[in-house]
TrEMBL record:
<dbReference type="InterPro" id="IPR027417">
    <property type="entry name" value="P-loop_NTPase"/>
</dbReference>
<feature type="domain" description="Sulfotransferase">
    <location>
        <begin position="1"/>
        <end position="159"/>
    </location>
</feature>
<dbReference type="InterPro" id="IPR000863">
    <property type="entry name" value="Sulfotransferase_dom"/>
</dbReference>
<dbReference type="Pfam" id="PF00685">
    <property type="entry name" value="Sulfotransfer_1"/>
</dbReference>
<keyword id="KW-0808">Transferase</keyword>
<protein>
    <submittedName>
        <fullName>Sulfotransferase family cytosolic 1B member 1</fullName>
    </submittedName>
</protein>
<dbReference type="GO" id="GO:0008146">
    <property type="term" value="F:sulfotransferase activity"/>
</dbReference>
<comment type="similarity">
    <text>Belongs to the sulfotransferase 1 family.</text>
</comment>
Length: 167
């Protein structure tokens, strides 16, 4: 899971760089679209509530939950938790190797080598951008952030999900 404000920024940049995508506007036009769920995969709010409900209603299903922010903060800890969840016994050097291979810059470089150039504007692969936590603060105006927070409170009023808004 990733905080929804950073998801909005990521989606905007991703959508803005896809050839023939049905959106070619500015950030100010994208925020209301995102809040309504008029984007790929629908509403972040609906999606998150559905997952939360499914996990609560089906405790017998083993689901590992982590956040992008937690993985950025301490990737090795996250990889170690995942190996324990999967009940896979790994030594520390293997876990560190997996962690190193899954770092954002490494994945961005590897993915850029594999992507089809012809589907992106400016022929620049754009599946990965910055990989930063808290970049939303560079995009949202105060009014947009306040609107987002109101929509969040309304849509997630019965949810226990509390995104980490870190810098």
């Amino acid at each position: 899971m990733r905080n929804p404000k950073d998801v909005a920024v990521s989606f905007f940049n991703h959508h803005s760089n896809i050839l023939d995508y049905d959106f070619s506007g500015k950030w100010d036009d994208y925020v209301p679209r995102y809040l309504k769920g008029d984007v790929d995969y629908g509403s972040w709010f609906d999606y998150t509530v559905k997952w939360e409900t499914f996990m609560a209603d089906n405790p017998e299903y083993p689901i590992f939950m982590t956040t992008y922010e937690d993985m950025k903060e301490d990737s090795l800890r996250g990889v170690t938790q995942l190996s324990k969840f999967l009940e896979v016994d790994c030594d520390q050097s293997f876990l560190q190797e997996v962690t190193n291979l899954c770092q954002f810059d490494r994945m961005k470089k590897e993915k850029a080598n594999m992507e089809m150039i012809g589907c992106w504007k400016r022929n620049v692969p754009a599946i990965y951008r910055k990989g930063e936590v808290g970049d939303w603060k560079n995009w949202f105006t105060v009014a947009q952030s306040e609107l987002f927070d109101r929509v969040y409170q309304e849509q997630m009023k019965d949810s226990k999900v509390q995104p980490r808004y870190m810098i």
